[in-house]
């Protein structure tokens, strides 16, 4: 195990990827934490392999993942949100809701998007509030979640969003109104 942790900490890209490919069924908390830390690796391939190993992990790793939503690192929070959504971890919804107020727009966007994906109807008001976020990606995630949850948009909100003249927003609004 020490060898695994050492390679994940200081190995080169190929070594890290090779080790991560073998860890998709690990239930060792220390190893899982080290895998999660790779979401902030300099190499995108390492981050991708860490993501893949955790999404496909068949063990009960939800608690460890949910705990990492409290990380100070935005990359760790974002990837963890995506993993929880991909694993359909509805038990994570209350913790994901908290991240809709995160200082980082990317975290807010991933949180809002995952709530729609997880069919978190209880988050309807939060999703509607996020339509007015200052960040375009958060607005788009909110619209996508509204589509996923079949939440209608008020005429007033639609008018506000159309003032921005963003083609992607306009496309999402058309989908929402169908």
What does this molecule look like?
This protein has 178 residues and is an all-alpha fold. It has 12 helices and no strands. Helix 8 (105-117) runs parallel beside helix 10, helix 9 (124-130) packs antiparallel against helix 10 (136-149) and helix 10 (136-149) runs parallel beside helix 12. The longest helix has 14 residues, at 136-149. The model has no long low-confidence stretch (mean pLDDT 95).
Q: What's the CATH C level of the domain at 93-178?
A: Mainly Alpha
Quantity of strands, as a count: 0
Radius of gyration: 18 Å
Biggest sheet overview: none
In CATH, what is the homologous superfamily of the domain at 93-178?
A: Leucine-rich Repeat Variant
The chain-level mean pLDDT equals: 95
Secondary-structure element order, as H and E? Answer: HHHHHHHHHHHH
**From the coordinates shown, what is the CATH architecture of the domain at 93-178?**
Alpha Horseshoe
How much of the sequence is in beta strands?
under 5%
How much helicity do the residues have?
Answer: 55-70%
Low-confidence stretches: none
Instruction: Give the overall silhouette.
Output: elongated
CATH topology of the domain at 93-178: Leucine-rich Repeat Variant
């Amino acid at each position: 195990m020490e060898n695994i942790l050492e390679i994940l900490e200081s190995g080169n890209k190929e070594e890290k990827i090779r080790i991560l490919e073998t860890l998709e069924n690990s239930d060792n908390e220390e190893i899982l934490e080290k895998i999660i830390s790779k979401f902030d690796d300099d190499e995108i391939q390492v981050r991708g392999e860490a993501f893949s190993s955790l999404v496909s992990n068949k063990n009960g790793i939800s608690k460890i993942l949910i705990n990492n939503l409290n990380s100070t690192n935005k990359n760790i929070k974002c990837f963890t949100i995506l993993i929880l959504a991909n694993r359909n971890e509805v038990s994570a919804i209350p913790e994901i809701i908290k991240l809709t107020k995160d200082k980082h727009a990317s975290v807010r966007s991933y949180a809002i998007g995952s709530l729609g994906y997880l069919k978190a109807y209880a988050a309807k008001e939060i999703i509607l509030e996020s339509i007015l976020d200052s960040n375009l990606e958060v607005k788009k995630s909110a619209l996508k979640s509204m589509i996923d949850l079949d939440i209608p948009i008020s005429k007033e909100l639609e008018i506000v969003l159309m003032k921005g003249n963003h083609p992607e927003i306009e496309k999402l609004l058309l989908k929402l109104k169908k």
